[in-house]
Specification:
InterPro entries: GntR_C (IPR011711), TF_FadR/GntR_C (IPR008920), Tscrpt_reg_HTH_GntR (IPR000524), WH-like_DNA-bd_sf (IPR036388), WH_DNA-bd_sf (IPR036390). Transcriptional repressor for the pyruvate dehydrogenase complex genes aceEF and lpd. It holds the Pfam family GntR. The N terminus is likely disordered. Helices cover about 75% and strands about 5% of the residues. A two-stranded antiparallel ribbon has the order 1-2. Helix 6 runs antiparallel to helix 7. With about 270 residues, the chain is mostly helical. The chain folds into 2 domains: about 70 residues, Winged helix-like DNA-binding domain superfamily/Winged helix DNA-binding domain (Arc Repressor Mutant, subunit A, Orthogonal Bundle), CATH 1.10.10; about 170 residues, GntR ligand-binding domain-like (Four Helix Bundle (Hemerythrin (Met), subunit A)). The radius of gyration is 25 Å and the shape is elongated.
Length: about 270
């Protein structure tokens, strides 16, 4: 009788283990929002369980809102995972200068911590991943300046996300990932304004990314945190300069239009 009971509860215990393992993989950033999981057969073999046991674990994670299954289309990490900072602020970020500067302030705090802990904790595998992310940044910045703002923004944000991964701090990582879409859209806007404002921008940004990469690679935690802050400060400085110039231009244009309107009025106007 005891053996029969044990046989009945064993699949549930296995499902518990699979639930915990899949939760850990998502929490550690191995699977990201919207990503499709490997096929059932592959996962079952990986975990050494039957497909029914795997399906039970997936159903339980789907009930928690962590996974979603699509008929004939596989199983996905919920696309809403970590999205609370993203979509509601999308329009605000693109329309409000104040909100865009608030985001930069938040990044100043958040990314400084990511860089500091990444420099302290990076493993050899982490440094390889960081090198690959920096290589994508370098390829973009070495290419002739054109209309590749989206690609430049993706490489830039991708580099900072890898730094968050290398920090080995799950809260920092998911904070950064929750901002991914907003950061990418905001970076596209920032790049356009900065390139138009200063010819030096691309070279300066590349050198800032290179210095940050090298500090983390070499384990210089305090220097990495300082360089991260200096990078954000430079972005804010150039954007403020661009915005102030735009305000002066708009003011001058209004004056010109007002004078033109007055000049068009005759003595009987």
């Amino acid at each position: 009788m005891a053996e029969a009971v044990g046989q009945r509860i064993r699949p549930r215990r296995l499902a518990d283990e699979i639930v915990r393992e899949l939760e850990r993989l998502v929490l550690e950033g191995n699977f990201v929002a919207g990503e499709r999981l490997p096929a059932e057969r592959v996962l079952a073999e990986r975990f050494g369980v039957s497909r029914p046991t795997l399906r039970e674990a997936i159903q339980r994670l789907a009930a928690k809102g962590l996974l979603s299954s699509r008929q004939g289309g596989g199983t996905y990490v919920s696309s809403q995972l970590g999205a609370s900072f993203d979509d509601p602020l999308d329009g605000l970020m693109s329309e409000s200068l104040e909100a865009r500067h608030d985001l930069l302030e938040y990044r100043h705090l958040l990314e400084g911590g990511c860089a500091y802990y990444a420099a302290l904790r990076a493993t050899d595998l982490d440094r390889e991943r960081l090198s690959a992310a920096f290589a994508r940044v370098e390829a973009i910045y070495r290419a002739p300046l054109g209309e590749q703002r989206d690609e430049e923004a993706a490489a830039d944000v991708g580099f900072h996300l890898v730094i968050a991964e290398v920090s080995h701090n799950l809260v920092l990582l998911h904070s950064m990932r929750s901002l991914h879409g907003m950061m990418t859209r905001n970076t596209v806007i920032n790049i356009a304004g900065m390139h138009a404002q200063r010819a030096e921008t691309r070279d300066r940004l590349f050198e800032q990314h290179r210095a940050l990469f090298e500090a983390i690679r070499d384990g210089q935690a305090r220097r990495a945190r300082a360089l991260s802050g200096q990078h954000i400060d430079y972005v804010r400085e150039v954007l403020l300069e661009s915005e102030e110039e735009a305000l002066r231009f708009a003011r001058a244009r209004r004056r010109q239009e007002a004078r033109g309107a007055l000049a068009g009025c005759g003595p009987d106007g």
